Amino acid sequence: MKKLAQFCLILLLAAGIVLGQGPGPGGRRPGAFGHGGGEGAFGMEFAGPGSRTPVTGAPYSAVQVTQFQQTLEGANQISRQTQSKVYRDSQGRVRIEGAAGPGAFHGQATTASVRIFDPVAGYSHVLNPQKMTAVSMAIPAPRQGASAAGRRAHDAAQRPNAPQVLKEDLGTQTINGLAAAGTRTTQTIPAGAVGNAQPIQTVREVWISTDLKVPVMIKSSDPRFGTSVTQLTGITQAEPDAALFQVPAGYTVTLRTRQPQQQ
Fold first, then answer.
1. Residues 144-168: pLDDT tens digits?
2. Which domain holds residue 11?
C-alpha cells in the first residue's frame, strides 16, 4: 500500500512527477520524473505542478515528445521515442495522457494512463480508462522552510568526491514558436566517486517558456546512459475542455492516503 501511494505521488506531483526521459545530470536513468518550471526531471515539469505551486492564467495544450539515443560498443545504437498529450487550464489544473508501465519507453505493450493534477479541488488522480478506475490522493500542502530537494542537494554537495557543478545562462531563443530562456548545467563526477577511472561529465540544457513558465525543450547527455531530447510540440495557447480535468462519471474511485515523508 505504501509503495503504491508513493508511486502515485511521484507520477502526479513529481516532480516530471513528467512520461519517459533521458538521464539528468545526476545520472538518473530513463523513467525518472519530476518539476516546477525549473530543472527537475522530465515529466510533469512540462505541466507545471511539481513545485505544488500551480501556474495560472497560461492555458495550453501540447504533445510532449522524448527521443532517446545510446551508442553501444561497435557503433551499435539504441533509439527510442515516446510521446504524451499535455493539457493545462487557466486555473493551473493539468492532465497528461500517455503510456504507462515498465515498457513505456522500450516500445513494449503498455496500457494507456491519464494523470490529473487538480490544485483547485486539492486532489491528484491516476485514471485507467480500460478498467474505468481512478486512484485519487489529496495534494499535500507545501513544506515550510527549505525544500526537501534543496536539503538533499546541500547534503550531496558536502559529501566527499561531490560532483562539480557549473551553470551557464544561455540567453533567450525562440523554440517551437515560443520565446524561451535557456540554462546549461554541466556536472563533473570526479574519478573514483562511483568507481570510475576517469572523470564523468554530464550536460543538461533546459529552455523554459517565458509565457507558459514550463520547459519547451530539455537536452540531456550522459556517457553512461546516452542522450535525450524532450520537447513540447504542437503547442496551442487556448483553454482546454474543463471535462479533461475531472474523473469521468462511472469510474470506480479509490482514495489513497499519502504516507508521511521522512524528515
1. 555 555 565 666 666 767 889 999 9
2. 2-159+238-256
pTM for the predicted model, two decimal places = 0.74
For residue 213, being part of any structural domain is answered with no
Strand order in the sheet with 252-256: 164-175, 178-189, 200-209, 215-222, 226-236, 60-71, 77-88, 94-100, 111-118, 123-128, 133-138, 252-256
Residue 232: inside a domain, yes or no?
no
| 7's grid cell | 508511486
Q: Could you tell me if residue 153 is inside a domain? A: yes
d(CA 15, CA 244) in angstroms, rounded, equals 21
Give residue-wise pLDDT tens across range 184-241: 999 999 998 888 899 999 999 999 999 999 999 999 999 988 999 999 999 999 999 9
Q: Quick one: residue 211, left, alpha or beta (phi over 0 = left, psi -120 to 50 = alpha)?
A: alpha
The answer to whether residue 227 sits within a structural domain is no
Number of structural domains the chain divides into? 1
- Give dist(CA 158, CA 155) in Å, integer: 5
Name residues whose C-beta falls within 8 Å of residue 10's C-beta, 6 or more positions apart in sequence. 17, 33
Residue 168 one-letter amino acid:
E
* The pLDDT of residue 163: 84
Q: What is the C-alpha to C-alpha distance for residues 15 and 13, in angstroms, rounded to an integer?
A: 5
Q: How many residues does the chain have?
A: 263
